[in-house]
Write a structure and sequence with these properties.
The chain is an alpha/beta fold and 364 residues long. It is 56% helix and 9% strand. The site of zinc ion has 10 residues, from helix 3.
């Protein structure tokens, strides 16, 4: 993909292209956004643009890639010698010190084929202080013609020492990505149930149950599809230590994939709770309950129209019912509770407990 294929309306993309145009690229970037996948696409497009053999130029400087030349193709296929990727790999899903040392070693070497060396660190929030220390000096003064791109969906978890050494660009596109049929159905059920509940503990546990069942179904389907692809299936007669390693890799990849899906599901919930919050603003245009004067009417109509266009799931009737019962402040607290829940789950707390505490706290 080239920059021209990505959403041109994104301010951060425009900023990035403008820095290319002016030859003012930073040495270290921190890209944040909703999904690692799209951040990786942007990082890859930047790497292509820097190394493309026939780039689109402005003022003589490359501002986009051709997406066709050999360099572009090799970057697309992950086998360009001057583009290095680091991702959380170990069992505990952290980026290890050894991975960072290796990256520092290769980034110091001269580029093999192209002008720029590009290092991309995926999920840099998984880098612990020990790993970060191995890396801070390079981040501060990277070798000439090298660019370090760090990606995260949880910028609040990235170590401050790293954030302060990077140029930050946020690619959160301000709306959730389209839901698939199963997610849509689940959110419909969940919101409906939430709108019925009358502050009873029983109702709350029903909600928790809906969430846990969806997560269990996700885990099962992930287990099935990853197990089918694992070499364990085809080579059951392999040596024991090889089998053990495959087993370990399979377990780790199931866990990583499950966590990604779980975060995505909670992300969907977050967008719905944001809708609830927007609706509370309409139902209570002024928190002090001041009587609305006729002069306010056109303003309120505009506000209602604007709010409708901001809703992520305007089709869900349950949103309005929940919004009627809670204040905008409570609705806003819900968003913080979801953020907190994602942070807990990102750490090593027990999942069921975290979900229970989180759901019990929500104002519904
Ligand atoms: Zn190219």
């Amino acid at each position: 993909m080239a920059f021209k294929d990505l959403s041109a309306t994104q301010q951060s993309l425009q900023l990035l292209q403008r820095s290319l145009e002016r030859g003012r690229l930073a040495h270290g970037y921190l890209f944040s956004g909703n999904e690692l996948e799209s951040l990786e696409t942007i990082a890859r497009t930047l790497a292509k643009t820097l190394n493309c053999q026939e780039p689109v130029r402005k003022n003589g400087l490359a501002v986009d890639c051709c997406d066709r030349c050999l360099a572009c193709q090799r970057i697309e296929r992950w086998n360009h010698p001057d583009l290095h990727w680091v991702r959380p790999e170990s069992k505990s899903r952290i980026i290890t010190v050894a991975q960072m040392r290796e990256l520092m070693r290769v980034i110091q070497l001269k580029p093999n084929e192209s002008r720029f060396k590009v290092a991309v660190i995926v999920a840099v929030d998984r880098l612990r202080p020990e790993g970060a220390n191995a890396f801070l000096k390079t981040l501060e003064e990277p070798p000439a013609d090298s660019v370090l791109v760090l990606l995260t969906t949880e910028p609040q978890r990235v170590l401050e020492t790293i954030v302060s050494r990077c140029s930050r660009l946020s690619f959160g596109n301000g709306s959730p990505r389209p839901l698939d049929a199963a997610q849509r159905e689940w959110l419909g059920d969940f919101s409906e149930l939430a709108s019925q509940e009358r502050k009873s503990l029983m109702g709350r546990y029903c909600l928790l149950d809906t969430l846990l069942r969806r997560l269990a179904a996700l885990r099962t389907s992930i287990e099935e599809s990853l197990s089918a692809r694992s070499p364990l299936q085809q080579h059951q007669d392999a040596e024991k230590n090889l089998l053990d390693r495959w087993e370990e890799e399979l377990t780790a990849s199931i866990e990583a994939e499950y966590r990604r899906h779980r975060a995505e599901l909670l992300g969907v919930l977050h967008w719905w709770l944001r809708d609830v919050w927007l609706r509370t603003l309409r139902q209570k245009p002024n928190i002090s309950d001041r009587a609305t004067s006729p002069a306010d009417k056109p303003l309120l109509a505009i506000a209602a129209g604007l709010e409708a266009s901001l809703l992520s799931f305007p089709e869900l009737a349950a949103t309005g019912r929940v919004a009627q019962r809670i204040s905008p402040i409570e609705a806003l607290e819900n968003l913080q509770i979801l953020d907190q829940l994602q942070r807990w789950l990102g750490g090593n707390v027990q999942e069921a407990l975290a979900l229970e505490v989180g759901l019990l706290k929500l104002h519904l």
